[in-house]
Specification:
Layout lengths: L2 E3 L4 H9 L4 E3 L8 H9 L3 E4 L13 E3 L5 H12 L20 E3 L1 H4 L5 H6 L3 E3 L6 E2 L3 H13 L6
Parallel strand pairs: 1-2, 1-3, 3-4
Antiparallel strand pairs: 5-6, 6-7
Bound molecules: zinc ion.
């Protein structure tokens, strides 16, 4: 399942990436609209938007209107509609900023790019080939998991 959000759902896009779901963000001039829907259709992605007026248009692709403006509720809506949930092996596979697949990075590569205490305490790192950001499990992951446990019931299909 691949997604595309318009600019009404930037925060949700980052969270979906964090969960390991390929989620593009529409970067066109308009915040939302026909171009956005066409882009999602072209890339065979499910279109996600808060813009209710999109639902009135004729559209051959799949569109979900997200109702809530709160991220917790948005994630719950996604869990209900698509069965999306936390996936241990899926987390931190995709850059939250670029939607690029992260590559493994070794200690030498990340030296000087991350805080010393992280370098000393973490064993594995990943790097985004696009923006160069370094990701590691640890506090990010723990926080994300705690968030998901609170907000997305595990027993959803
Ligand atoms: Zn990146």
């Amino acid at each position: 399942m691949k997604f595309m959000t318009d600019r009404t759902l930037g925060r949700l896009a980052r969270w979906l990436r964090l969960l390991g779901h390929d989620t593009a963000m529409y970067e066109g001039k308009e915040k939302s609209g026909r171009d956005f829907l066409n882009a999602a259709l072209r890339e065979r992605r499910i279109a996600l938007s808060r813009n209710r007026s999109l639902a009135k248009r004729q559209y051959r692709g799949e569109l979900k209107i997200v109702r809530s403006d709160r991220i917790e509720e948005q994630l719950r809506e996604m869990a209900e509609e698509f069965g999306l949930g936390p996936s241990a092996e899926g987390m931190f596979q995709i850059c939250m900023v670029c939607n690029e697949k992260l590559l493994p990075a070794d200690r030498r590569e990340v030296k000087g790019l991350i805080p010393d205490y992280v370098e000393e305490t973490q064993a594995s790192f990943r790097k985004c080939p696009c923006c160069g950001r370094i990701f590691w499990p640890g506090t990010h992951l723990q926080r994300a998991e705690a968030f998901m446990k609170r907000h997305i019931p595990k027993d959803r299909p």
